[in-house]
Design a protein that fits this description.
Blueprint lengths: L7 H15 L4 H18 L5 H5 L20 E3 L6 E3 L20
Antiparallel strand pairs: 1-2
Length: 106
């Protein structure tokens, strides 16, 4: 058996569970809602159906601007694992150790 892969047996079990939870009458509405949700997700992420709907890419479409780098956050070093911890955090994201708050000198 493949580890982590959805095999046909797994898909059948999932389908039976969904059928038991929602019932056979709700499956078409559930499928339509999932399709609408995926379509909205595609549009929101920029992979919408614009080219498929119009047949060709639109010449009047707004140019895509590149995303600039994310602003940097002030960080400090974790005393346990020496990882980077943002200043406002109380725990290290790498090892989970408690990090003492920094004191600001006046």
């Amino acid at each position: 058996m493949g580890v982590g892969a959805l095999q046909p047996g797994h898909l059948i079990v999932i389908l039976v569970i969904v059928l038991l939870i929602f019932g056979p009458g709700k499956l078409p509405a559930l499928g339509k809602a999932m399709g609408d949700g995926l379509r909205e997700l595609k549009k929101a992420t920029g992979g919408g159906d614009e080219a498929k709907d119009s047949g060709t890419a639109s010449a009047t479409a707004a140019p895509v601007t590149p995303i600039s780098a994310a602003p940097t956050v002030a960080a400090r070093t974790c005393p346990t694992c020496r990882g980077s911890v943002p200043v406002g955090d109380k725990f290290c994201g790498n090892c989970g150790a408690t990090v003492e708050p920094t004191t600001r000198s006046a």
